[in-house]
């Protein structure tokens, strides 16, 4: 589990498993600041061979970012 903090407050997290990114969350007040991208990049560095990530169809931003998540 990786967390993103701002001023001592947890504003996002990434739960990384052996082959999956189980959860990627950024608090709505902190979205569009690059926090999710940084957590995704950290996951890519930890799993350079690739990993699985599920996104909901309505989350177009997340789906666009996940297209480059391959090994």
How do the helices and strands line up, and which of them pair or pack?
Blueprint: E1 2-6, E2 9-16, E3 21-26, H1 35-46, H2 60-66
Antiparallel strand pairs: 1-2, 2-3
Overview of the structural elements:
With 71 residues, this protein is α+β, with helices and mostly antiparallel strands. 27% of the residues lie in helices and 27% in strands. It is built from two helices and three strands; from the N terminus they run βββαα. It has helices spanning 35-46, 60-66; strands at 2-6, 9-16, 21-26. A three-stranded antiparallel β-sheet has the order 1-2-3, covered by helices on one side. Strand 2 and strand 3 form a beta hairpin. It is globular, with a radius of gyration of 12 Å. 13% of the residues are buried. The mean pLDDT is 85.
Q: Averaged pLDDT, please?
A: 85
The CATH architecture? 3-Layer(aba) Sandwich
**Which stretches are low in confidence, meaning pLDDT under 50 for 5 or more residues running?**
none
Mass-distribution shape: globular
The CATH class label is Alpha Beta
Strand order of the largest sheet: 1-2-3
Number of helical regions: 2
Remind me, CATH topology?
Aminopeptidase
> What is the domain total for the residues?
1
Strand content: 25-35%
Give the helix/strand class. Answer: alpha+beta
- Extended strand count: 3
Major sheet description: 3 strands, antiparallel
Q: Helical proportion?
A: 25-40%
